[in-house]
Amino acid sequence: MKSFAAGTPMFGVYSLTGWVYCAVAETTASWWAGDEFVCYEDIDGDGRFESAMLSGAPFLGVPLFVFELGERRALAEPAPYTVISGAEGPSVEFALVATVQTRRLPGMLAEAPPVTMVTVKGGFRASADPGGVGRAADPPTTPIAGWADTVVLGPERPNRIHVLGAELEILGLGEDNAVRYRVISSAPAQVERIAMSVTRSTTYTPIFIPG
């Protein structure tokens, strides 16, 4: 079983059986494999971990993003732990990505010029080297559904966008549609829990037997 040093800050992952706490194992990174998580579980809530799970590499290269906990294994001896505040624990950066669209909106008059819209999407900043394979992350941000805002550019009103608690003003577009903006208020530190689910479906194809 891989491990990490005593005193390493851990982060919580909510599972079907309750909270488990994870940290990155001591590095085993190489040109074909990256670091992996080890997650621990306090099954009876007595302040000691009784089992551990090797949980794979960060999902999509995003730090603190555990996709599958892995097989539960009992520890030889329970390991005590101390609860700290969220502010003291490990964290991952949010990132904002802007996209520009110029198109005609439904119901617009034929002679009206198309409008330009700027959409800012929020997500988690991915690792620069997911999986230790020596290449840049693509894309550099893992977007999260619902963390987005769109504004139609126009001189008649402030072009304000609100994402992740941050407020931005879109000032205009530069060369190659580069977005010029100013930060009115930055995003505060916050705790987000992202739930993932897998949906399986079965498709039946009718077979016709000639009579």
From TrEMBL:
Source organism superkingdom: Bacteria
Protein name: Uncharacterized protein
Organism: Brevundimonas mediterranea
